[in-house]
Amino acid sequence: xxxxxxxxxxxxxxxxxxxxxxxxxxxxxxxxxxxxxxxxxxxxxxxxxxxxxxxxxxxxxxxxxxxxxxxxxxxxxxxxxxxxxxxxxxxxxxxxxxxxxxxxxxxxxxxxxxxxxxxxxxxxxxxxxxxxxxxxxxxxxxxxxxxxxxxxxxxxxxxxxxxxxxxxxxxxxxxxxxxxxxxxxxxxxxxxxxxxxxxxxxxxxxxxxxxxxxxxxxxxxxxxxxxxxxxxxxxxxxxxxxxxxxxxxxxxxxxxxxxxxxxxxxxxxxxxxxxxxxxxxxxxxxxxxxxxxxxxxxxxxxxxxxxxxxxxxxxxxxxxxxxxxxxxxxxxxxxxxxxxxxxxxxxxxxxxxxxxxxxxxxxxxx
Length: 366
Known about the structure:
This protein is of the alpha+beta class. It has helices at about 15, 30-60, 65-90, 105-135, 145-175, 180-185, 190-220, 225-255, 260-270, 305-320, 335-365, and strands at about 5, 275-285, 290-300, 325-330.
């Protein structure tokens, strides 16, 4: 068996494709995306710092459980934005001896920490405030007007930050040829998705808090605010679990989009020297980079001296057509009947996944 592998970096790849794809290499396309991402995170960070201070001060004065829960929510979001800013910078570091595939998964790790932060700092504290307010209701010192003003300002600030995240996600969705909802659920960049989830949750949290304060004002019962704090806690826990599960999948090792897998299959099948693709496996290395490992059976009659040349040409074509694949490994094998059958089944599975994606996107695009 002859093995051909590609572990070296193609210095001209980013220039040829106009897009930086390697972990830690940040070419023109990746740099532009990172700048836009940093801007989105900074907008959210500045908004949350101001809002957290206002909510905490007014909440402490008025004794409002709902407003204190929202203050904890804003503090959690502020810490998370710091994590996300760090992840953008750390993920672009160049590969080294200890991390030969680069640092692209830094974003996935920090996104996981952000999810934990939402759960612990936001969800748990909000639950405590809600439970305490429900079991020991206190009328508080009033201050409904100040509370409404803070919530109104928070709604405007969070709404503006949410709009910024939606605009960026919409642009990416359009470039990827899919709906906004699909972009949010399938995007490999957890940074913008986390900011979107935080801001959307913050807007809902502000509305819940306002409803609780209004119920308290109309009925005189502070348990309305306690109920709002408990609802905010439940919302934060659900969002944290969703973001954590997504980050976990990427950290463990997630395959690339089925359409990209299908494109790689088709490219290999087009090669006249390849008789069958026995195995094709992919894994995300970062936001804009991935690894591809394929076991291919060459047609009879190819001299062993030509195998390396054929392999190099195929790898080069893969990088040109699918620049996301920063690392490409080709293993030349003699596939038996069972391996060929499994390969066909796997290819059919990928084709069905692509068809399902197209069916889900088609109504929204129409």
